[in-house]
Every structure is written in structure tokens, then in C-alpha cells.
Design a protein that fits this description.
mainly alpha
Length: 65
């Protein structure tokens, strides 16, 4: 994740480095299952997840105090 309009070359470089890190065996020790998908696929996943939870909160009638 980064600020809006982050230049594509920076996104690609960060992605490359993050994929290297998540492939380290130490990361798997926590029970996580790293994916390392492409940046746009991750963006789409986050947007879909946000929409799912926004709908659930709206339907539940939950309010912030």
C-alpha cells in the first residue's frame, strides 16, 4: 500500500522486494499463507473486500459511538 498516484516504477520495485520477503521461510512460521500476487490483483482484492464489509456494516445498522 502507498499514497495515491504512486508512480508505477516505484510500485513495481516495492512489489518485487515484498515478494522476496514473503518467500522467506520465517514468514511462514506465523501460520500465514503468503500470496505475492501482482499489485493490480491485490488492489482489486482490497476493493472487493472493502465493498463486502461496507455492505455488511450498512445492512447491520452498526454505528460509531
Amino acid at each position: 500500500m502507498g499514497p495515491p498516484n504512486l508512480p508505477k516504477p516505484i510500485v513495481r520495485k516495492l512489489h518485487s522486494e515484498f515478494v522476496k520477503v514473503i518467500k522467506l521461510n520465517d514468514i511462514l512460521a506465523g501460520g500465514a499463507e503468503p500470496v505475492g500476487s501482482e499489485p493490480e490483483a491485490f488492489r482489486q482484492y482490497l476493493l472487493a473486500d472493502l465493498a463486502k464489509w461496507a455492505k455488511l456494516v450498512k445492512e447491520s445498522g452498526a454505528k460509531l459511538n
